[in-house]
Each structure stands twice: as C-alpha cells, then as structure tokens.
Amino acid sequence: MPAALQAPLFRNPEEQVRPRLPDKLSVRLVADEDFAPFSFRSRTGSPAGISVEIAIAACEEARLACTVEVRPFAEILPALQRGEADVAVTGPRLDAKTLAAARMTRPYFRLMGRFAVNAASTLDVASAASLAGRRVGVVKDTVHARWLAAYYASSRIATFDDLAKAGAALKASEVDAIFGDNLQVIYWVAGEAAADCCRLLGGAYSDFDYFSRNLAFLVRSDRPELAQALDYGLDKAQSAGATAKILRTYVPLDPW
Question: What is the model's pLDDT at position 1?
Fold first, then answer.
C-alpha cells in the first residue's frame, strides 16, 4: 500500500472538538477475540488487529489512558451493558437494536467488495460492460454472489465453495475475474497461493444493500463525552498519518 495513502473519512468533514475530560482518563476497551484482521488475540495473548490499533491511536490523540481486553463475541455487548467496559472496539453489528443501547463513534473503516484478474489480463476496469460475457468467479450463496447476479447479469458467473477455490480457478485462467470481500481478495492476491499470478482490478465497491457496512466503536450510552473524545482522537490519528500506518501494517495492497 502506498506510503502516502489516506483512508476515506467516512463522515461529515466538520472538525471534532475534544470535550472537557481529564487527561489520562482511564477507559476500558473490549474487542472480539476472533475477528481477524480487525481484532484478535495474538500469539502472545495480547490484543491485536486493525481496529484495536486504531482505537489505541485514537486514545493517545485524545489523551485517554485506554486498556484493551479481548473476549468472545457473545460477551462484548453484555460487558458494555453491565458497565464492565466503556467502549466496544469490535463485535456487535451496528443495527437499530445495538444503537438503542450504545452510542456510535464516527466510522473508521468500511467493508467493501473487490474484483481481481489474472496479471496477464487486458482488462483495466471492472464495469458490467467490460465483464459482459466474461467468466466471473465468486463464493456461492454469499452477498457478493447476489450482488453479481443483480448487477453483472451479462457475465457468466461461476460459483465456488470458498475464495481459495475461486482464486485457484483465476490462477489457472479458468475464470476471467473473481469478486469477493475486499480484504479477503487482497489477502489472496498478495498471498503465497496466488504466487504473483494476479492483480486487483479497479477500486473497491461499496453497496450497503448487499455487502458494505461501516465499522465504528460503540460507547456506553451514558458516556456521550467519551464518544466525542474518540471522534476527536480518530480525526487526529488520521490527520497525523497513524491510521494509514496501521493499515499498511495489516493490509498489503491498497484497500480503496
């Protein structure tokens, strides 16, 4: 990923203001222990992941003293509701039920979709017209497969049990392109199995009716000033280049 790459803001561009909070205020963060690459328990047992590191960077910029604990997915929201944690870094989906019980920060990442082609392909765009009549691989029974059926009906869609099998078909030139989750496609293209066979085609696609959703932190509903402080910290971490540096650590190719 290019050193100068900056992630989209995913929010209203108004600058956030740090609320009047004591410096080094203790804040307890909790994250899903099995949601790689966003949050997970590292080999040493310590919390790691894109979301965890962005949260720590935001805390540092907001002058908060944050600690992170990783727990099973099912324990994240109850921990927030019982007051055992102040902020959920990952875990609960941002739906109406969850947002009725917690306050959301501004988004810091978005799940999107991505095409990839063989390195020798002459394709330079991933439009429906350019892929008309082409064989496009996708994992069966997924939101990505349904999206292709809706918008790329003129392509010949081939379904596979998993992305590894779709990627193997692309490597063998049995399909002209593959489509799937943005980061999963990136990790496959940059991974050992691909062996430099393939490249990303165009940028990432965002569609909230199918596969896209924003990632944000969830703050206890009785701590609105903490949500504001984290918004401030997220802005500062991004403008200082910390967010891009974290993404470069975990994502080998341009995710946008």
Answer: 43
Strand order of the sheet with strand 34-35? 34-35, 39-41, 47-48
Strands 135-139 and 156-160: parallel
Q: In angstroms, rounded to a whole number, what is the distance separating the alpha carbons of residues 187 and 235?
A: 27
Is 15's pLDDT higher than 80?
A: no
User: Strands 109-111, 213-215: parallel, antiparallel or unpaired by DSSP?
Assistant: antiparallel
Contact 175, 166 (CB under 8 A): yes
pTM of the complete model beyond 0.70: yes
How much helix, strand and coil, in percent to the nearest 5, is found in the chain?
30, 25, 45
Strands 177-181 and 135-139: parallel
Counting every residue written for the chain, the total comes to 256
Q: What is the DSSP letter of 182?
A: H
Angle at 240 between CA 234 and CA 241, to 5 degrees: 95
Note whether 130 and 117 are within 8 A (CB): no
Which tens digits make up the pLDDT trace of 68-98? 999 999 999 999 989 999 999 998 777 777 7
Chain centroid offset of residue 165 CA: 23
Give the max Cα distance, the chain: 61
Question: Which candidate, 256, 219, 215, 253, places its Cα nearest to that of 49?
Answer: 215
* Radius of gyration of the chain measured on its C-alpha atoms: 20
- Tell me the β-bridge partners of 151: none
C-beta of residue 34 within 8 angstroms of C-beta of residue 72:
yes
State the CB neighbour count (10 A cutoff) for residue 174: 12
Half-sphere exposure of 173 (CA within 13 A, CB side): 4
Token digits of residue 185? 């496609």
Rounded Cα distance between 110 and 256, Å, is 10
